[in-house]
Design a protein that fits this description.
With about 230 residues, the chain is of the alpha+beta class. Helices cover about 45% and strands about 10% of the residues. Helix 2 packs across helix 6 (about 195-215). The protein is globular, with a radius of gyration of 18 Å.
């Protein structure tokens, strides 16, 4: 499975990143010559709740996978304008946007599919990746994917979390990963595009628990047909 992001800047400059994913595990397939800069070591700005064992894992898998993106965009500001084409196996998406929003969409794939235990439950959303998703779309997709997972749990005879309690806790854990990644990037980049891309992702992660606390009220009206 491949997802390609093509950044097209004024003047003709282009940057292309193709994320290759294992068809079954949905893990990022890293090239054999993948660089591992010093800042990608696990001990460097390690996330507060990191579940990886430092004596077994030397490098943060997310940091390693985004290192080329970080190097390529370290001198870009958040509001540099860019046209982005996203090519998946099913369709092509296009949008004129800012670098921070485009990077946030790309980084979201790497963060979910790099093998970080704290991000694993996002993989179904990677399989059905939606570039440039809004907050409302993200809430809808996150809750829907989680509830589908609970359906499959119940089919296995296990208890299902229909109140989304664990989903809220899961996204609070994602916020810790976002904070850790922001701290790592501060020592690497010269401008703010990459850090603000992660901050944008974190805004989405913060919205999920709030939406759950409110009973997903903003989405409830869409389902009126279900109880007519």
């Amino acid at each position: 499975m491949k997802i390609s992001y093509r950044f097209i800047f004024e003047g003709g400059i282009q940057k292309v990143f193709t994320v290759k994913l294992h068809a079954e595990s949905l893990n990022v397939i890293s090239p054999d010559d993948q660089a591992k800069p010093e800042w990608t070591k696990l001990a460097n700005c390690r996330c507060q709740h990191c579940q990886l064992e430092e004596n077994k894992v030397q490098y943060c898998p997310i940091a390693v996978n985004i290192s080329k993106v970080a190097d390529s965009f370290k001198a870009y500001t958040s509001y540099n304008k860019v046209k982005v084409l996203v090519v998946t196996e099913e369709r092509v998406y296009g949008k004129k946007t800012t670098v921070q929003k485009a990077l946030g969409s790309l980084l979201g794939i790497y963060m979910a599919a790099s093998g970080c235990p704290s991000m694993e439950k996002l993989k179904p959303m990677v399989r059905f990746h939606l570039p440039f998703a809004t907050v409302e779309e993200t809430v809808f997709r996150s809750a829907s994917a989680y509830l589908l997972g609970q359906y499959f749990l119940r089919k296995q005879g296990k208890q299902a979390d229909l109140d989304l309690i664990e989903l809220a806790d899961f996204y609070k854990g994602i916020q810790m990963v976002n904070r850790g990644m922001t701290e790592r990037l501060r020592g690497v980049v010269r401008k703010d595009a990459l850090n603000n891309a992660v901050i944008c992702l974190d805004m989405f992660a913060k919205e999920i628990p709030y939406a759950i606390e409110d009973g997903l009220d903003e989405l409830e009206g869409l389902f009126g047909v279900y109880w007519q």
